[in-house]
Amino acid sequence: LLAHYKAREEQNQMNHLLSSVVGVAALAFGLLALLLFFFFPQVAPVITKFQGETLELYIQFGRIALLTNFLFVFGNAFGQYLITVQRYWIYGLTPMFYTLGTILGTLYLTPLFGEFGPIYGTLGGSIIYVILRMGGVMCAGFRPHATLWHPDLLEMGKLMLPRMVALGALQLELLLFDTVASGLATGSVTVNAYARNFQSVVVGIAGIALAQSAFSLLSQSASQREFNRFWIYLRKSVLILLVLTIPGAVLLAFLAPVAAWLVHLSHVLPVFGTCLALYALSIPFESINHLLLRSFYSLKHTVTPAIFSVINGTVAIAAAALLAPTYGVYSLAIGFTAGQIVQMVGLAVMLPRRVKRIERQVTS
Q1: How many whole angstroms separate alpha carbon 13 and alpha carbon 16?
Q2: Closest alpha carbon to 341 in 307, 312, 313
Q3: What is this structure's pTM?
């Protein structure tokens, strides 16, 4: 939606839209956070098995985490503006400062505040994260409006609902993966989690980063109905992804001994290495999926991506559960890769149809 106004050089509308999104999101999440703050002592025992002092500590941590996540309402909204205006340096550097806050808090605040050192550092990092992103959007031309309403909010709400379903499917997939792994040999949960984490590093560095950088260009070309330019951006992005992710996947598989050493799994290197190699196979497919998903979003269409995200999770869980008795922990990586392949094929088939439908609407 921001890119729609960017393509038409309507800066005032961009300012108005971002201001209303930030205002409404902050109000909604603020009220939710306030309720959770007061009722967290009743909620915490339901979602954890902690008791006594550990439970009390968890409640205090949860309350601080609510404030941290409240700040992310602003940081994430500002981040979308930065992507739209293609200010990628400040967008990419700010998460590093957030993470650095946690690291410095662990190292230097723990001696002063004990268990609260890391989370105080995280809170400090999130404050810096928001301040830097706010400075970035201000330098890029954003001027805040005192408003809680913009006509696009209704359309945004409609577009959000399928996206929320897709994110829910992803979280459910990760939860069920742990459920399957917990019924396998001891250590399967740990091996699978670390292998998946290393795989996600390559996807994040190459796949998500490139998909984010292409998102604004795809959205602007779609907004102006310049679909020749849309396809050029998409094809070039896919080619770049393949050039980056295929060697990245191979390199990750070869670096399994180093990865195992970093997370203290060298004693199960054969199992971990095989699991990591199977997850590495999914890197090109998942990376292209991130690009295809944003291609649909640039067309203001979120239903098809949500459907195939659910199909992805269903295939992954079904394959993992069926193969678990035979292939053990490897079944999780096989299922994950199978789900990504199915999603990629489905999105690739449906995207041209979606574009043609829009073109017919324009000509009619």
Answers
A1: 5
A2: 312
A3: 0.86
